[in-house]
Amino acid sequence: MQFRDTDMGATKTDLFTKEQNELAAMAKAIAHPARIAILQYLVRKNACVCGDLVEELGLAQATTSQHLKELKTAGIIQGTIEGVSVCYCINPKVWNQYHALFSNFFKEVDLSGGNCC
Amino acid sequence: MQFRDTDMGATKTDLFTKEQNELAAMAKAIAHPARIAILQYLVRKNACVCGDLVEELGLAQATTSQHLKELKTAGIIQGTIEGVSVCYCINPKVWNQYHALFSNFFKEVDLSGGNCC
DNA sequence: GATTTTGATCGTAATATTGCGATGCAATTT
DNA sequence: AAATTGCATCGCAATATTACGATCAAAATC
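^ inputs. structure came back:
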């Protein structure tokens, strides 16, 4: 006989705390060089439309749009319809939350006490 | 006619800078709740063996070992053979690098100048 | 030396992510 | 109104990740 997990290959989120799942989701949002590049570009330029990013990144329009969607879903950017195009920018509130939560996670580890085996 | 990219579905790392790829790789290393949980446990306990984590996480031994391997590959933890078991702990040097790089990436965004559309 | 313990690795199954062409849709322009 | 522009979404192909049972290898114990 054989137990077959219905969701094999999927992350077992139920084993972890809300905080762990959320921090992992935040990390996943920026776990792609294109999304890092988008965020850096937005920080530098303050705002831009999707077409700018297609040029800047060198990815297809569909792919770029998809990465934008993921960042938007994560809440770290926002987009507003600007006539025929869409203007994207950082959501500063969420951005600063990311800063705070990652900083907190990576708080100093004390080396005193020769921490390792 | 049809162009068929030989590496469809794979990340186009060549389009991005070394820094962008590295930061994305770092984010990916912690982009799973099990790996977050492992790191938190290690910070709390200072060190542990793989078996402890299998109990703690509730994942299969093979899965736990795989996550440990990813963290080890990323450099953020290290493992030393301790008789019949393996003792894992945070690599404080790399840990602090993560802290520094993420902190730097999420530096304050200035809201002055009503940055969005 | 056989057994046990511990963890890595292999093989496999399933879901998730990445990427792109094609298409659709809404606003603007002609 | 027709054409164009800008972007989202669909559908597909391919790679990547997650998860686990089974097996293997090394050290400790019997």
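Chain A touches chain B through 51 residues (CB under 8 Å). The mean pLDDT of chain A is 91.
thumbs up if we can close this ticket
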